Amino acid sequence: MCIPDILDWPTLKKIRAAINEIGFDDGRRTAGRDAKRVKHNLELKTGSEKANEIQVTVIKALQRNMTFRQAARPFYTHPPLISRYLEGMDYGLHVDDPLMGRPVSARSDVSVTVAISSPDEYDGGELVIHTPFGEQEVKLPAGSAVIYSSNSLHRVAPVSRGERLAAVTWVQSYVRNAQKREILYDLYRIREKMSGLDPDALEFALANKTYVNLLRMWSET
Q1: What's the pLDDT at 221?
Q2: How far apart are the C-alpha atoms of 81 and 72, rounded to whole Å?
């Protein structure tokens, strides 16, 4: 699912200005054993006040977005990594680690990429996700996000021009099963539509009951 306008332009400008004041490390330092072989990018150094501010800004922006909250059902959102791809860099085919973070780990159910660069600032660099319908290429406007199941095979295509900047994070969801999350999101949309049409109708009450009780049945921490 692609979600527009997670970060507005003034916020993007502040993030990009802060990034320019912070150095980068080899991206392989945060990769799992298998991913290290295919990961060729840079990641913003963490631990400084400015880096922490960027991470908090991205997480708060995601938390404010109703579509993200309803689709991902976040219990915990990992502090995002800011990835940088220059000409010739890529991230080969891989699956995200099931447990993310050190020293405290959280299960990765939903992967999130928030674009910081605009598509016209670089060539290549598409996020390519393997699905039952074939490869799906995603190249987002700056400030937009894409969320997808963390158990998906995916890659970042080589950048052939410019610079690709993105914030990448992972969510441990209250609802770990992707199909159940989809059902709940569909029911949420139905419930909201019915509420606008006739909030006193029995059908709305039944839709709300079904939504609430499925969420109660499927939620876990």
Answers
A1: 81
A2: 18
